[in-house]
């Protein structure tokens, strides 16, 4: 399922137009993104939790040359599924 499929599913199940469903889905994604950018966790009970993990700068090795390189620090988005989501898949 991609974003377009999700919009179609929301429109069908909620009785909304495609435009209204697109606005609703985009608003949810924007709210999650904004909260993560602010350093907050986003917990959707039964679905899961989105959080940001920070990785420090570290030393690595170029496998082709063996030279030591510096890998820059970065932030990663993590998702931990909730019990209900996990149970529905299994």
Care to give the gist of this entry?
This protein is an alpha+beta fold and 90 residues long. The protein is 43% helix and 30% strand.
Can you describe what's shown?
The model has no long low-confidence stretch (mean pLDDT 95). This protein has a three-stranded antiparallel β-sheet with strand order 1-2-5. A two-stranded antiparallel ribbon has the order 3-4. The two termini are 19 Å apart. The chain contains three helices and five strands; from the N terminus they run ααβββββα. It has two domains: 1-40; 41-90, HU Protein, Chain A. The chain is α+β, with helices and mostly antiparallel strands and 90 residues long. The protein is elongated and about 60 Å long.
Overall mean confidence score, pLDDT: 95
User: N-to-C terminal Cα separation, in Å?
Assistant: 19 Å
Strand order of the largest sheet: 1-2-5
Main β sheet profile: 3 strands, antiparallel
- What fold name goes in the CATH topology slot of the largest domain? HU Protein, Chain A
Q: What radius of gyration results from the CA coordinates?
A: 19 Å
Q: What is the share of helical residues?
A: 40-55%
Helix run count: 3
Shape: elongated
The total tally of domains equals: 2
CATH class of the largest domain: Few Secondary Structures
Q: Which band does the percent of strand residues land in? A: 25-35%
The sequence of SSEs as H and E is HHEEEEEH
Quickly give the CATH architecture of the largest domain.
Irregular
Helical/strand content category: alpha+beta
According to DSSP, the number of beta strands is 5
